Amino acid sequence: MGTLSSRFKPVLIFAIVASSLFLLGGGDASAATKTWAGTEGGSTTWSNANNWSPVGAPVDGDSIVFDCALAADCASIFDIPGLTVSSVNFTGAFPGQVLNTTDAPVVVNGDISSVNPGTVFQATVVLGADITVNNVVLVNLDLNTHNITLTGKGVLNGTDRWVGVAGYIIG
Description:
Structural class: mainly beta
Number of helices: 1
Order of helices and strands: HEEEEEEEEEEEEEEEE
Oligomer: single chain
Radius of gyration: 21 Å
Strand order of the largest sheet: 2-1-3-6-9-11-13
Largest sheet: 7 strands, mixed
């Protein structure tokens, strides 16, 4: 009576393996890399699905990439309250600019970087982890008990300095 019949052993093994894979899966299967296309009828909002490749507005966990091949390619307006992203990267020949039309911050769990100095992230950034910011000026920053490493060059209060925060720092 104390042993499992041979008929139930495969079912039990399958249930244990499936449960382990589910619990230890680790990542968010829906997370993606979203690359800014910014081509939809002059709209530069993050919430416009057609401004991204693949098509669809960013969701929590996505990594954000701006390919700044042309100056016009990198101007965008953050308008998705409560969004948490994995990272934000600006590539290409021109610096980028992100403006905010909401009072809500964007939570960033990974690095924020730009190939070129002068990129401005004018939205409140809340750190979701310890991160490095390279060649990007943050306008408002909430450390949220995390550490930030600033590298590269940028503008701080109108003078050529190391990358910095032009607004406030809290946390």
